[in-house]
Amino acid sequence: MARAAVAADDDIFALRLNRSDADLWGMTDRLYGSHPGYPKFRAALLKAMRAAWADRPAALRRLDLQRDLEPDWFQRPHMAGYVLYIDRFAGTLAGVLEKLDYLQDLGITYVHLMPCLKPRHGDSDGGYSVMDYRAINPAFGSMADFEVLATALRDRGMSLCVDLVLNHTAKEHAWARKAAKGNPGFQDCYLMFDDDTLPRQYGQTLVEVFPDTAPGNFTHYPAFGKWVWTTFNEHQWDLNWANPQVFLEIVQIMFFLANRGVDVLRLDAVAFMWKRMGTRCQSEPEVHMILRALRAACRVVCPAVIHLEEAIVAPAEMLPYLGRGEHDGREGNLAYHNSLMVQFWSALATRDTGLMTHVLATHFPPRLTNATYATYIRCHDDIGWAVTDEDAAAVGLGGPAHRAFLSEFYEGGFPGSFAQGALFQVNPATGDKRISGSFASLAGLERALKAGDAAGAETAVQRILLGHALIASYGGIPLIYMGDELALLNDYGYLAVPDHAHDSRWIHRPRMDWQAAETKKTADTPAGRVFRGTQHILARRLAVPALHGACPVKVLHSGVAGLFAFRRVAPTGPVVCLFNFADGWQGVGAAWLRQQGVLRMWDVLSETEVLPHDGVVTLPPQGRVWLV
Q: pLDDT tens for residues 138-194?
């Protein structure tokens, strides 16, 4: 019997390997076929896959089979995500375990633990400077604690997401330490130069990511006589993905984490992985080959695992991370819909959805192959105003002027602004000014509460719920950032923490307010109203099959400046979603809605009938409806 089971396992492995042949070996042949170590690498990769498959726990193998049979599992309307910092949410992994009832009550089925792998000491770029990918940050617990939490999540039907940084390691990583000691093999795992000739040539076309705190893209280390490529920070050394040993090590780490119970690998900083002279060294063609091959390797060993590719770039550059052209349906399963987030804030500031409608209708296809978006309004990072000059001009705006306006508005300095944020990484050379701030503070709650403005506070609450209703219906997996469901405000305490004071992004990483959470069901406070409103939105999302991620999204031109509209096209019939970004009531003709397929005028969000007045369906300020 045992021999038969082993034979069956071998057959399954062989079938999955054959399924991924073109995606795995086809890509690695192109990437590394001319490398002298390629035959050895290919044998080592196959050996690593067989070993990881042999080590895969029975419960996870069963999940592999289930998700192979239900490949749309992550596109279904029950999927709703929550993104948290372990220490700021509950202290430790054991603390998170105790708070799962809270997340389940909210309607969460996907939990993203912000960087939890072992970082360097001191400033670690919020945990993204990793020194050991196979260990948990000891401040949070152990790998055993991690596996207990992963099992508990799986038992509740919740998927676990963790960050895997692909572009760089901490300079304290074992490889980096050996490289610093002069080991040529490990130096070749990074991008190191004997002098600054090549760094200066590369630098002519590179963009500075953190111009305030980490100007330039290279760091000189006199101790071992090398210039090292450091895109993000001095302590983060860029990996040399042209070396197949880097691919092999990362794929083995992916298998290790998958076998500990991870469902979603958030692949961080992927755009920067391949370097080419004379370019920005972002989103080069080889990046997509690497990511396709990594996904293929997982589909052999752990097909229950999907990949979220973090590429916060313009639409034309972002969509290939979900697979376009030759990689269609074969690369990432998820990617952040950065443009939806940016356009939400732009429309909220201008009370005009013209730019939003133009961008989302022009640049994004109605549907994706084997992939969907991760939709969000806020995250752990800053907001960069990704509005191109061409898109701005298409609706009569000046690109630089509009981007500058948004920064000033959300910092709080523009006359009449309701927002309170903080500037991040101002670049005088480019005029780039990014913004930090919590959802609630940027939406106006902080200013309203300070002014004792009850009406302004309620408007801010409605802006937050407008955003959550948007991401819950647009298409993909909506992600609620920790505390946004309780309308937590900016946390200025970061200024007193030496490792945080230089980085304004900590202003929107407050500690969880469990006192507010305890009264969420009954309190007539902004926290209580936002929690109950968000809970209702996620519950209604679950009940609407047309919000499946594979149902196309058709952005509509309503002809009303303050309204944003789109139609979800489903076999069960269309759902037309309307959102009012204006400060006054806005209406759209009932005849126009009927042309979009809305016959009954039933709002599945509020579960009430919407009655036209004089042939017009009207929405209050910040109103939102999902009409069938």
A: 999 999 999 999 999 999 999 999 999 999 999 999 999 999 999 999 999 999 999
Catalytic residue among 125, 284, 310, 484: 310
> What mean pLDDT, rounded, does the chain reach?
95
Cα dihedral: 211, 213, 219, 223 (round 10): 170
User: Which H helix or E strand runs over 433?
Assistant: strand 432-436
Measured from the Cβ of residue 451, the count of other Cβ atoms closer than 10 Å reads 10
Residue 144: per-residue pLDDT: 98
Q: In degrees rounded to 5, what are phi and psi of residue 347?
A: -65, -35
The model's confidence at residue 1, banded by pLDDT at 50, 70 and 90, is very low
Nearest to 302 by CA among 116, 598, 52, 487: 52
268 catalytic per annotation: yes
SS3 assignment for 604-627: CCCCEECCCECCEEEECCCCEEEE
Query: For 412-451, what is each residue's pLDDT tens digit?
Result: 999 999 999 999 988 887 788 999 999 999 999 999 999 9
Respond yes or no: is residue 310 known to be catalytic.
Answer: yes
SS3 label, residue 557: coil
Determine phi and psi for 372, rounding to 5 degrees: -155, 175
Neighbour tally for 98: CB within 10 Å:
11
Is residue 33 classed as helix, strand or coil in its secondary structure?
coil
Annotated catalytic residue, options 268, 284, 331, 382: 268
Structure tokens at 495: 């200024």
Q: How confident is the model over 246-264, as pLDDT tens digits?
A: 999 999 999 999 999 999 9
> Distances from the Cα of 423 to the Cαs of 24, 410, 426, 446, in angstroms?
43, 9, 7, 17
pLDDT digits (tens, 9 = 90+) for 302-334: 999 999 999 888 888 889 999 889 999 999 999
Residues of the chain above pLDDT 90, percent: 91
Q: How far apart are alpha carbons 374 and 82 in whole angstroms?
A: 11
The position carrying tokens 């997982």 is 298
Cα(316)–Cα(321) distance, integer angstroms: 10
Q: Residues 509, 87: contact at Cβ < 8 Å?
A: no
- Compute CA 543 distance to the chain's CA centroid, rounded to the nearest angstrom: 24
The amino acid sitting at 362 is T
Asked whether the whole model's pTM tops 0.90, one would answer yes
Other CB atoms within 10 Å distance of the CB of residue 36: 8
Helices (H), 38-120: 38-55, 58-69, 86-90, 93-98, 100-106
Query: Which residue type is seen at 475?
Result: G
Selection from 42, 40, 48 nearest residue 21 by Cα: 42
The DSSP element (H or E) to which 553 belongs, if any, is: strand 553-556
Task: Fill in the amino acid letter for 474.
Answer: Y
Instruction: Say how far apart CA 303 and CA 295 lie, in whole Å.
Output: 9
Two tokens, residue 438: 């919590």
The two beta strands, 236-238 and 81-84, are unpaired
